[in-house]
Design goal:
By secondary structure, the protein is of the alpha/beta class. The chain has 21 helices and eight strands. β1 and β2 form a beta hairpin. The chain is globular, with a radius of gyration of 27 Å. It binds adenosine-5'-diphosphate (ADP) and magnesium ion. One of its GO terms (biological process) is regulation of DNA replication.
Length: 449
């Protein structure tokens, strides 16, 4: 509260800044970091760029030492209570989407300082997109124009877009770069018509060397804005300026956008970003922990990385939740704490299937004991049950072949490999095998619910 008041006194923040500030919820102070949560990307970006200075200063003042802020997106965050009367309830819609500030193109490219190539972890899921982004940053206007990056939410599209902006300006400080979210572009366009400012609008988006436009899918079905964007795009492209576009779907799947426009998007280079693999997820968490200077042991990072698999934003959010919770309760960050804190985040469906669960359910299905299943008897039914259980361990857990062998009374990894192969072959050939494996799998899943 005291920091908010301090920020309010900062004249540079203004009405818009204050309405954004009300959307921020403080989470915790961990050493020199203050963790803040907001409900939307859009807000996070604003807080991390425009508000970073005043907020950092005000918080440092209140806390009594130099701090850094770390902002996480958490959809469940409600605006924090404030002393001003109009925010007793949720802010009115126009406050949640404050009007964009007037043009300051060259001085302020609207880039988030955290989103650079240095902080971007490369893996097989994003290697190509990263390389393309780097190539554009190195010689804007030359190759891959436009560059179109698409992929699911939280996979690094916005990060890459900002990284292009930073690096371009690092290499050539005179380059005029402008980052804009499509939503902001739309608001800006509508306001420019209302206020009779179409000239300044055009200047803002056409007198640049690199236009970075985020989440173009937002323009779907918005005819007038699309038309304006189309002209902007053509003007820039004809002048040899670079346009980089992101979208949550490929150009082909952009409904509500005319064919002539979609074709234009495909002129340059299209590349997607995929969900990261386990190694990349762990590497991202390591980097994040280091950047925020928080201590988190490897098993905690691995736990988070193995359970949150499809969205990097959620991955980072989980780490922040764990470290913030630990700091608040003055507890060390360890695995058991992480499990408790993230319980509701990691849904039952994703909870781990263990070898013992598989062995138990398979034995039950065949009406034999655990000893019989994991033993050495070569009777037919035991062998079948054993092989199916080994096969399911391979399919449903992350265990290595030798580790699986250990669960079956210390069998050799080649035995496990043989079993997996055998069941695989039989599933394809014999209906009965297929049905048995499916049924056991279903029972394992059910037993977790
Ligand atoms: P998108 O725009 O695709 O929804 P963002 O670019 O906003 O995703 O990424 C979500 C969060 O994950 C951001 O905080 C971003 O810094 C982080 N992030 C995404 N990809 C990477 C990566 N490869 N390395 C490090 N951080 C990443
Ligand atoms: Mg984004």
């Amino acid at each position: 509260r005291r920091a908010v008041d301090a920020v309010a006194e900062d004249r540079t923040v203004g009405q818009q800044g204050m309405s954004f500030l009300r959307l921020v919820k403080p989470l915790a102070v961990v050493e020199d970091n203050v963790f803040l949560a907001v409900a939307e990307d859009y807000t996070k970006n604003y807080v991390e760029t425009t508000l970073r200075g005043p907020v950092t200063e005000a918080l440092s003042e209140v806390i009594g030492r130099d701090i850094r802020i770390a902002v996480t997106v958490d959809a469940s965050v409600r605006p924090s209570a404030s002393s001003s009367p109009e925010t007793d309830d949720a802010p009115p819609p126009q406050m949640r989407r404050p009007e964009p500030v007037p043009s300051t193109v060259i001085e302020d490219p609207h880039l988030n300082p955290r989103y650079t190539f240095d902080t971007f972890v490369i893996g097989s899921s994003n290697r190509f997109a990263h390389a393309a982004a780097l190539a554009v940053a190195e010689s804007p206007g030359k190759t891959y124009n436009p560059l179109f990056i698409y992929g699911g939410s939280g996979l690094g599209k916005t990060h890459l877009l900002h990284a292009i902006g930073h690096y371009t300006r690092h290499l050539k400080p005179q380059t005029r770069v402008r980052y804009v979210n499509s939503e902001e572009f739309t608001n800006d366009f509508i306001n420019s018509i209302r206020d009779d400012r179409s000239l300044s609008f055009k200047r803002q988006y056409r007198e640049v060397d690199v236009l970075l436009i985020d989440d173009i899918q937002f323009l779907q079905g918005k005819e007038q804005t699309l038309e304006e964007f189309f002209h902007t795009f053509n003007a820039l492209h004809n002048a040899g300026k670079h346009v980089v576009i992101t979208s949550d779907v490929s150009p082909r799947n952009l409904d509500g956008i005319e064919e002539r426009m979609r074709t234009r998007f495909e002129w340059g280079l299209m590349t997607d970003v995929q969900p990261p693999d386990l190694e990349t997820r762990i590497a991202i968490l390591r980097k994040k922990a280091a950047a925020d200077a928080v201590q988190a042991p490897s098993d905690v990072l691995e736990y988070i990385a193995s359970n949150i698999t499809s969205n990097i934003r959620e991955l980072e959010g989980a780490l922040i939740r764990v470290t913030a919770f630990a700091a608040l309760n003055r507890q060390p960050v360890d695995l058991s704490l992480a499990q408790v804190v993230l319980k509701d985040l990691i849904s039952d469906d994703d909870s781990e299937i263990t070898a013992s669960m598989i062995i138990g359910k398979t034995a039950e299905y065949f009406g034999i004991t655990l000893e019989e299943l994991t033993g050495t008897s070569r009777s037919r039914v035991y062998v079948t049950a054993r092989q199916i259980a080994m096969y399911l361990c391979r399919q449903l857990t992350d265990l290595s072949l030798p580790k699986i062998g250990e669960h079956f009374g210390g069998k050799d990894h080649t035995t496990v490999m043989y079993a997996v192969k055998k069941v695989e072959d039989q599933i394809a050939q014999r209906r009965q095998m297929y049905n048995q494996v499916n049924e056991i799998h279903a029972r394992i899943k059910q037993s977790r619910a």
